Each structure stands twice: as structure tokens, then as C-alpha cells.
Amino acid sequence: MLYYFMTPYAEPAPGPQARFNGALARIRARIEMTFGQLKARFTCLRGLRVAPNRACDITVACAVLHNAATIRKERVPVVRVHPEGDLEPVHLDEQTGRAARDRIAHHHFG
């Protein structure tokens, strides 16, 4: 199975590309907010210095505990959200990734 890192269009055309960039920015902000909540609730995640497999296990355990706390309606840590303008886009020159991004933009936002 192939995975692609979705990147915004550097100079989006009006229409599907611009809508794709907007949706990607909103999703990225939500993901970063969730990471912030996890790090606020579980301070051990702020500077893990363990092997990647161990870091993955710790992160998954924290996510499970976070979900349990959410279900129990426990207080959610306050996280500062960065405005969209503070997010720096990452541009990769992967042709197949670009093709996948184009298909998503035109299928979902066209």
C-alpha cells in the first residue's frame, strides 16, 4: 500500500485546487490541535527519546487513554491554535503524489 504526504498547491488555480488547499489547511490545523491536546494531557509525549517502535507504542497508549477520557467527558487541556497563516506549506517534488493530490482535488472539490 502506498501513502502520500498531501501537500498544498503552491499557486492554486481558482476552484478545485483552492478548495483543496482550504480543506487541507483545516485538516492540518485539526490534527495539530489534537497533537497539542495529547501533549498537554500526557507530558511524556513532549520529548520522547526512545526507539521509534517504542515511541509508537507510547503514542498509541496515550491516544487510547485520551479517547477514554473524552468518552468520560473529562476536561480537555486548552491548546493554542495557530492561525492558518502560521502554517508553512511543505512542497515535495513527487510526481505520483502530485497526481494523487490532483485526483483528490478534482474528485472531491471539483
Automatic annotation (TrEMBL):
<feature type="domain" description="DDE Tnp4">
    <location>
        <begin position="14"/>
        <end position="67"/>
    </location>
</feature>
<protein>
    <recommendedName>
        <fullName>DDE Tnp4 domain-containing protein</fullName>
    </recommendedName>
</protein>
<dbReference type="Pfam" id="PF13359">
    <property type="entry name" value="DDE_Tnp_4"/>
</dbReference>
<dbReference type="InterPro" id="IPR027806">
    <property type="entry name" value="HARBI1_dom"/>
</dbReference>
<dbReference type="GO" id="GO:0046872">
    <property type="term" value="F:metal ion binding"/>
</dbReference>
<keyword id="KW-0479">Metal-binding</keyword>
